[in-house]
Amino acid sequence: MEMKVPYPAGQSAGARPHLGRPMRRIEDVALLTGRGQFGDDVGVKPGTLYAAIVRSPHAHAVLKGIDSARALAAPGVRAVLTGADLAAWSKPFVVGVKAQMEMWALAVDKVRYVGEPVAVVVAESRYLAEDAADLLHADYEQLAPVTGINEAILADAPVLHEAVGSNVVSDRSFRYGDPEAAFAAADRTVELTVRYPRNSCTPMECAVVVADWLSEEEGYDVASNFMGPFSLHTVMALALRVPGHKLRHRTFPDSGGSFGVKHAVFQYAVLMCLASRKAGAPVKWTEDRLEHLVGLTSATNRLSTIRAAVRHDGRITALSYDQFDDCGGYLRAPEPATFYRMHGVLTGAYAIPNLAVRNRVVLTNKTPAGLVRGFGGPQVYIALERLVQRIAVELELDPLDVYRRNFIPADAFPYRAAAGALIDSGNYQRALELMHSEGRLAELYAKRDRARAEGRLYGIGFAAIVEPSISNMGYITTVLPKEARAKAGPKNGAIASATVGIDPLGGINVVIASAPAGQGHRTVCSQVVADVFGVEPDQVAVNVEFDTQKDAWSVAAGNYSSRFAAAVAGTVHLAAVKLRDKLAHIAAAQLGADAQDIVFAGGQVYAAGNPGSSLAFLRMAASPHWAPGLLPEGVAPGMRETAFWTAESLQAPDEQDRVNTSAAYGFAFDVCAVEVDRHTGRIAIDRYVTTHDAGKILNPALADGQIRGAFAQGLGAALMEEFRYGEDGSFQSGTFADYLVPTTCEVPEPQIIHMETPSPFTPLGAKGLGEGNNMSTPPCIANAVADALGVKDVTLPLTPSKVMDLIGADEPPPSKPHAAAAVQAASAAAPAKGGKALAARGEVMLGAPPETVFAVLLDPQALAQVIPGCNALEPAGGNRYRADVTVGVGMIKARYQAEVALSELDPPRSLRLAGSGLSAVGSARGSGIVTLEPADGGTLLRYDYAAEVSGKVAAVGSRMLEGAAKIVLNQLFEQLGKTAANRAAGLPTTAAAAPAPRRGLWQRLLALFGVKR
Description:
By secondary structure, the chain is an alpha+beta fold. It is about 30% helix and about 25% strand. It is built from 26 helices and 36 strands. The strands form 8 sheets. Strands 4-6-2-13-10-11-12 form a 7-stranded mixed beta sheet, sandwiched between helices. Strands 30-36-35-34-33-32-31 form a 7-stranded antiparallel beta sheet. Helix 23 (about 850-855) packs across helix 25. The chain is globular and about 110 Å long.
């Protein structure tokens, strides 16, 4: 295919180009020697303060008020920002649909998800801010939550935003071709209902923001590890009520990963700007892992019903999508991007002329959703590629025949899809051939036959995906009817920019409008520029620190949607060519040659055919700095050029709602072979092969690294990763104990096969590939498991428990029916279902008789010493007490105002111990039966206890909570035994004051280093 690559006057030549070679990353030396400059490494101004965010423990509640007096009186506290402060300095974030919905940087009237910020405490250190945050009291009136799509769309569902009047904030239908006629004429109709779960990316580095309110004249200066798109700079400026030039936004030199989620940092950039204004000093906030999981963002979970009109030979003539996207508590910009990024290419890699679509955006009491690697692609392809496999199964066809008959023909590119995507290049049939030859499909088929003959569960799955790159800035406006689009004005394009300059010693400097998060942008840009000027990459310096006040940029700037290789690196090439052409005219005057004959190669500049008479590049390139008066006529001074580029094919949606959502479209075709253990439900990947067409490959080593990373992330989505919420909206996946991510132990090495069909629409012929396997791997694994088990419906993630349900294994009965019954009885006294449910049972020997143990439990002073972390205990009626109790679970410390009650007294044999409490981080409630039996001169105490917790404590996950519950109960009964034994021996059992609570984890760690607090 002929590439439209501009090469004006001047040529670059050499023995071997740097592009296309697996050059080692120039970023790695600094990173591997500890010299990286991540957000928390960068120095701050003297006097910078530190922020701690107070977050809602409830999913849905009226925020009645906030008492910050105790927090403000705490040592080192300089300010507390609450929703009451916001109206004076800010306004709600803009919303991508026409709905009366307000999302402020802090909750102002209601909270709509667990983890929603309600206040910011600003102090002289992070520790002081965290301690003071525990003293802030927010008054909530809990409301019924909405925790799922099916519940949210009910007519009588609680409404999150009363002004909207519904939890469905957008409902749009689209029709392309004649889908009704195609379905009426179809030989068969195949249908599936599929869910894609909420998950995240868990980068190594969480969010970091440093914000500084300068003055009314200068506005705000904020640095963050935001990764773009910088269209949200406009959203931030509007929210802060300042013009764009009064919001300077900068990025740090390094970023420890993003994979999409750091787009959500923009909300916290605004929040810290307001905190700085309130405190009158710069403010720094560093997100911890629990905050990241509970409150930053997640992939949009989708419920899709997809149908295909099919001929007997498997040819698909029409598709119909009915889709719901759960965007959480707010439709936060840039959502509903997840719906519409893929809209133009909903027919995938297939030549399907007819398409019907209905998209509904739904709100629930969960964290607002947003951009997670491949956003839109995983949600589309889990439905489309599962459907393709079902077509093969139901029509009893070879899946590869179904692919072959439906793929876009190789001679049809550029191909206009039904919904408007202009798919630039490809040869999908060639990918099938490569999978047969290099992927050794015949071996996998033979292995499956042998495994099944032996009674093993072995399956093979496929997935074919089109990977969009360089998003059209107008695609999101497809959510609006054409009349609303016309009123707002057209939006389209994907402007990229880059600057290349030469210094007075001939060194080359590059500045790009992107914000890399570990991909190796500096390496590739140095290769691009080195090829243009005929020098070595180490003669090129690439600056990736982004500054909205200094750098050339536009709203499409940033690091997202696989735009680097095709758009950013391509624009670097264009800027370098502009500067090279200028040098060619200067060199031509010195060499007595025509500019178009000047060659740049091997660090020399010479006329074609006369390499013996050459100029050293360093000297010649520097000369315009030192002698601008000698420049040839018509050549302007200055050795610096900036280039802007956007694809001509990226137009605004047309009146029929067709839209080319991206400038280039890569392709991946995967095969996965799995074996399922029928006894444990565990899935072992036997082989994974992925074939990629990303146009021109700029650096094969970096390309393979991106593929491996996306594969690992896609595997996590397929097998492990899911945000879980209780029926009360409590978040239950707040640590890596319960939110499992794949490690090197779980991720096999995929076989990678490359093919290249260069794009005619990008400067270097390159397309994106960094997101492809996050789109293809989940359906590929799902198809393999469905094939192994012979089932129609599979739901991600395919955890062992879900797989066992699919296999149909019977669970054995409980080994101790009486214990299960006791737990069930104890649960009856707990709150209604919703929070994190816990159960603990056990037995312990106490060195005192039952009568003495029972007496201790009825003595308030003794009971205060028995309860772990009890700061105070006051009688509140018959065998009822008010307590002040501090409980620590992992990284979470909570001080509860609690009630403790003893009931069902049968002295000295049994009683029920119940408690409930409320703290700034959530609520807790539990009840349990305690029995006492005489044994060996002492007491055998047995307990069966059930409890529920909500809010931040619930987020630490069931594994850590269950362990903590057992520890707390063991401490209680151990202390009970000691106190009872002392009483039996006539020794003192009470102290003058209740024991001090156990020091927290941070206090103990600091004490190890001699730091006292």
